Amino acid sequence: MNKRKWWSWAVSGILIMLVSMMAFADTENRDPREAVEAELDKKFQDGRYSRDGTETCLRCHDKDSEIPATGIFDNVHGRLGVSHGPMSDRQCEACHGPLGNHHRNPRGDNVREPMITFGDDSPVPASKQNSVCLSCHQGSAQRNWHSSVHAFEDVSCSSCHKLHQAEDPMFNQATQVETCTGCHSQVKAQLHKRSSHPIRDGVMSCSSCHEPHQSVNEASLKQVDINENCYQCHAEKRGPFLWEHEPVSEDCSYCHNPHGSINSAMLDKRMPQLCQDCHRVPHAQVDIPEGDLRVRGGSCMNCHSQVHGTNHPRGLTLRK
Questions:
Q1: What is the mean pLDDT of residues 255-281?
Q2: Is the peptide bond before 258 cis (omega within 30 degrees of 0)?
Q3: Known Pfam families for this protein (predicted)?
Q4: Closest to 46 measured CA to CA, from 122, 89, 101, 107
């Protein structure tokens, strides 16, 4: 045999063997979720939907099953009269994908053909889970979802919304706060401080100020900036005033912590320390001797009572 040809065959054989070993190693190290995701993609391509729809699903997923699904009939997603809802289309399979052989259990050992599931344990990534929801929910509230903080953090819709319950926890003020603070633990601590908005009392909820489906505005606020958000309730602070306090007109959060504080009026610091962050003593702006009880024992607001602004002709020093 020609020596050169033999060498070429030998190199080719080694390369084939290496490629096979790499492919085998890739299969061995492959994330099981990726395999399930690929299988679900194939099921969508095949499109083997059930003829009986919900009737097939409820044979196993009744109210007494390990994974009940009957609660959906008590909310908008399960009502047959809703023309644009999933029940008017492919019913359960409108969200969970084609049934295929899932209900027949052909694999044995109680291992069923996968369906699209939702939540942290789902083999489907959050972006694909959310694409199912966004195929219907394309209104103004969701138009900026893809640029939101929750989308960037791979938070799925089902992390907050529960569709197989009679009442979605996000539409109840008490359970909405509980759901949000499950992740935002620092805010939860602030809500329990001495001075806070009436959120724990059920008068307000997180969505009173924030729009979780978009982040065009700072901190996903409903209004364009912090002040405009505050003015929705505190309209008397809006102005315009003849004499304005510059930090007030710029940003309410310079002085207030909107989620709660140990100080009155949700102030970041007690008076007069808060004022002295800008108006230092001794300072040319504040002609008060050190140790003066008007500052130490009381508050700057004993005299400067209109710190949010005033229209009084002599209100240059923000007095009445």
A1: 88
A2: no
A3: Cytochrom_c_NrfB-like, Paired_CXXCH_1
A4: 101
